[in-house]
Amino acid sequence: MRSLLYIVIMVIVTGCSYSSSHPVVLDEAERLMQSDPSAAMSRLNSIDVSEFRDSATMARWALLYSEAMVINRLSAPTDTIINIAVDYYNRHNQTDEHKKASRLKALIQSTGGSDALATALYLQKEKEFLLYKERTKREMQLAIGLVILLFAAMTIAWMRQRIRLQSARNDALMSEASGLKMAQAESTVHMLNWAIRSVKFLGVEFD
User: Fold this and answer.
1) Tell me: the pLDDT tens digits for 90-134?
2) Contact 108, 75 (CB under 8 A)
3) Residue pair 59/26 in contact by the 8 Å Cβ criterion
4) 115 with 74: CB under 8 angstroms?
5) Which residues pair with 113 in a beta bridge?
């Protein structure tokens, strides 16, 4: 039981600390977006998005990445990355971000010309995103499995406790019943002795 709890705690701690540096890089890229869009693009490409731990960070990266492509006048070979932001902000009713993502989607495939390096980097990010999706799916399955195991372990522990308590109650009842029987037997013996003494006192003899 304790080992299972330790595993659950370790999974949570690992999940919380895994991508702690990524928001800092995203903040840097956002600050550089207007003053030095090329550097902002470089910062965004330096992140391995397969290591992201939550969909909010992924959506923010996708929005910034798409914005950087538009500002740098680079066209995207697909709309996979911008769709990450569009879908996320639509699901979470974040109107401003959703409008911005929708505008970028309209621009990103018509802005500028194709660039071999930019296209290669874009496709690499697509692969990292797919790895992220596969990993988060496995982690969700693992988390569900751990919750089920923890629930099962707690249920078994509770049932064992109930069995021990019931066994203790049964032992107490048996002990009490045994004590009552002995008390009844002693009472019967006392009554018989009293009757014999009374009869003897009255002068009746027993053969």
Assistant:
1) 999 999 999 999 999 999 877 666 789 999 999 999 999 999 999
2) yes
3) no
4) yes
5) 74
